[in-house]
Amino acid sequence: RVVAQHREALPSPYRRYAVGPVWRNEKPGPGRYRQFYQCDADTVGTPTVAADAEICMMLADALERVGIAQSDVIVRINNRKLLNGILEEFWKMDDPSKQPTADAFSQASLDAILRNIDKFDKVGADGVRELLTEGREDESGAFIEGLGFLDWEVDPILNFLHARSDSNEATLSKLREAVGSSQIGLEGVQELETIAELVKVQGYEGRIVVDPSVVRGLGYYTGPVYEAELTFEITDEDGRKRQFGSVAGGGRYDDLVKRFTGQSVPATGISIGVDRLLAALREIGRAGQAQTAGPVVILPMDKARMADYQTMCAELRNAGIRAEVFLGGGNMAKQLKYADKRSSPIAVIEGGDELASGQVTLKDLALGARLAAEIETRAEWTAQPAQITIPRSDLVAEIRAMLARADGA
Length: 409
Fold this sequence. Notes:
The protein has helices spanning 2-6, 50-65, 80-91, 107-117, 120-132, 151-161, 168-179, 183-201, 258-261, 274-283, 306-318, 332-341, 352-357, 365-374, 378-383, 395-408; strands spanning 14-23, 35-44, 73-79, 135-137, 143-145, 208-210, 224-235, 241-252, 267-273, 296-299, 323-325, 346-349, 359-364, 387-391. It is α+β, with helices and mostly antiparallel strands. The chain is elongated and about 95 Å long.
């Protein structure tokens, strides 16, 4: 929508990223909430699959940077054109006695096939076969109606899903054979060959692999599709060991912007489920509490002088220092308790005595917390005071220096 609205003003290609809340129009479940946070990255305006390769490499790097071992991440990539080619060849069979029993040529049927194949990782080959044929019973005991194909009709699809080999080259060789003379299928193979070569020369071979079982259920994907999978083991709610699984997915959606503009605009992108990624980081002990300091808090010791405290706050903010004035009531103890809850590094105090002498008192709350935890003797406390009094004119410079020391601690 943004590209459609501002296309003339944006550079082309246009790269963007965003983090924010989104909503799921699916059944919620453990770790799958109706509202959740998502991180998106997209490249809009170029048809070259070099953009898809770049997205996949960026995704692999991003997951490593947040603390997941390189050996625990694999980005799996496929191409919708391949599956379309497989189905196209299948539907062109000459033997009238072996025509598919379902309306395979309809878009609705194709979308249904894709959605069911996308469940390969969850239900396995047998489950996909049941979903494409007579139906299956899910874990809750509910029966899911199948698409009505016969077993022999879905064999080429399942063989395609099992085409992954030990190397991208070997997998692509099998896929080229599988699509036969389908033009769209061969185009998909060629795109994957280009991506495989790009990731290989940049050192990502083994981290980004061609995998025909990646389908992505959404109907708007038009080319390469990909998922990031975490391969370390966890124990599920039933006490069973299993891989953590997917934390991100995406693909090329060349026709999506066209819905808004009427003009074809090629695009590709990825979405990372932030809540699910945090769950993965908790599993490996890398999701500690954020240590970002809060604002400097100015304690108003004299409510009649609120304008002076606000002026002090403005000076700090204009110097690029996060600051706020405590606006609640109560004594100093209550105000310091508030500063502590705000994770404030410094409290600023200017009472009557400080005002008369042209000074302010700075209470180093971060240092005080460390001293309370680490120092036992009075001599140690005296040697490292957590509170100093300075000239009022030095307020900005001294707070900036204190924050710099805290960052280096």
